[in-house]
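ARCHIVE CARD
Drawer: 12
Card no.: 0347
Subject: one protein chain, sequence and derived structure
Cross-reference: see card 0346
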Amino acid sequence: MFKNVLQIALRRLWQHKSFSLINVLGLSLGMAAFLVLVQYLRHEWSYDQQSPHAGQIWRAYNETIADGEVLTRDANTHSALGPALKQDLPEVEDYTRLYNRNENSVTFIMPERPIKLEGAWMVDPGFLRLFPQQFLQGDAQTCLADPFQVILTQSAAQILFPGQKAMGKVLQVNGGAFEGKYTVRGIVADPPQNTHLKFNVLFSMQTRYAAGFEDNWSGYWDYNYFQLSAAADPTKVKTQLDRYSDTHLKDEGIRLNMQALKDIHQGSNLMYEIEPNVDPRSLQMLFLIALFILGIAFVNYVNLSTARAMERAKEVSLRKVIGAKRWQLIAQFLLEGFLINTAALLVALVLLHYFAPAFARLTGRDILQIPGYDGTFVALCFGTLLAGLVLAGLYPAFILSAYAPGEVLRSRWMGNAQGGNLRKALVVVQFACSVGLIISVFVVQGQLHFMQKADLGLSLDQVVSLKTPAFNWQQDSIQRNKMAVLKNEIEQIPGVSSVASSEIVPGLGISTISGTSSGMYWLKKPVAVAKSTIYTLGTDEAFFPTFDVQFLAGSFYQSMDRRHAYENLIINESAMHALGFPNPQAAVGEQIAYQGNTDGFRMTIRGVVADFHIESLKEPARPTLYQCVPSVENGYLSLKFDAAQTASLLPALNQAWKKVFPEHHLDYWFLDQQFLQQYQSEQRLAVVFSIFAALAVGIACLGLFGLAAYLVVQRRKEIGVRKVLGAGVGQIVALLSSNFLKLIFIAILIGSPVAWYVMEQWLEGFAQRIPFQWYFVPSAGALVIGVALVAVGAQSVKAALENPVDALRGE
């Protein structure tokens, strides 16, 4: 019985090869796109789930408050918080702090050359209990218990000690947050990519205390993570955080809060995040795209199957006459659907495996490794196959098996009107989704282009920046003199027009500078306290001309006395408005002070500069004070150069660096390129949207092509009669295309407002954004109509050119 049904199914599929090919191709593309996107989403959803305590781990963060309003949220908090929580709350089982003063890299002094590694942290021993690592060598219980101990990842150990055993070796760091000589006490496997706590080097937190550090509630450079007991009530911990806020942080306008570990990667979006997070709205849109594409592929199958109703009606009727039961016919059609869906899934898996490396290069996510071909993926494949069989196979099977043999065989049956209406509705749904995706592509591309080309308020062309060695400006006079020598050496390089030093440079964010939320005010208006976090940036006299920053009032001011330099400031427009000055000229010469200061410290405004963007345009310009100090500690050098000298610049820069700092690694970059890297997530999203939108339109038009082909066959005699009566090729093409065009116009009317609403929500995440342009809709509509006309027109022209004698010969 089954063998007979299988033979019939295979014979039918082979007899109609074009129908089978279109179905398999459309379904395989839809399934492949769906599986790729869902695997990518699974990677993002799996972030920070490695720890067995992941559901009980929380991170504390700071909120800056003014008049009850939250102004900023910072991911880092105070060093005293973790120990206090462990001591005061029995619900807190363990804690760890991560500290690097936002110096994410460390340079080790090695015999041959300095080696720089990214991902360096000082951590408490609790880090290895909250986030267990796979130890290859060493003891997790003791390797971070004492000062000057270090753990390396397997990759870091191979880089530092190629072909050697790293355990017990001594590593030296000169300057910065990690200064000291460390003994390697552990080697661990490299952390997975789906965690925000990636690292290469872990230093013991006891090293910090050995250098004289004491826990405090003043500066906040630590990331505090804590583990609650299984039965703990998080609201009790939040109540304790409120007590700490009232006791220690009220004068600074800071309130402590907490967030679950699993919520950090997807949309935490705090200041000073350890790594960029993903926008949950983007993930939601990608999930919708995955469903849309798979749905479009299923719709194609339903449309093409039901469009063959006339052809298969006689087959069904004859089989019923000779005794076939309806359940046998349903089984026949379901088996055909199963064969097509299975073939499509196999092709989809081949496409997935082949294109996954290209997708990894595009998104930075290797979906073959994480999550890989695991049990969930296998279940996902079977679920996709089952969905194809149920959603796309059941309806045609029940429709085609329900024909009345008497009506069909007497040639009185003219098809199912209800089925025709369903096909029209499904075509509308297909192209509404396609139009929505194309409009989304236009919006994402438009916003990306706007951010890449917008006026930043400064010039980044022909500017190279380099990271200077970290040192203590007050105590290390040798390093201070070396910095002066380096700057002089660079100024002598042909083509270099200026060299500026600063604590940060555009494109790296504001992670290395501090801000205050304790309140700042204009002395003439002591009641009007600035209701925002105000940041402070150390620069020298060359910073503003090097970056072509415009002075709106006043001029540059610098003193060789460091304290005097702190008392004389340049401010930007945002700070001017926050402090209540009506215009730039009114601010020059005025004094400002911190709220609650008791030592009479005052700062005089010497100039006002236009706002410029240190961060991407996703963030607003921050209120900033520029302290023009004689030497910048732990900062950067930026040099403006002549483009004609680019080829000789870098070798000369490397030579000057080695002459002054041979024990340190030279790290440099072109600022215009570095700034654009802040938009990598948007660039990737734009490319992904474009690819999958094109795929959705292609699958929809593939189905439209097949549907048009079968409808042309059904109307073959009508077309022959019209040609005999004098209808031209253009009239025939217009007749066959008009019905499809009406459906596409309806799809445009439905898909456009939905796309507008969704993309407006997405654009709200940008401080500076484009408006939703009116021409996005007609452009998307014209594109879809054009592609659809090619698909339908090819069949229409073919039918119009056919000899009517061939069509009417049987009449």
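Annotation on reverse: The two ends are 39 Å apart (CA to CA). The mean pLDDT is 86.
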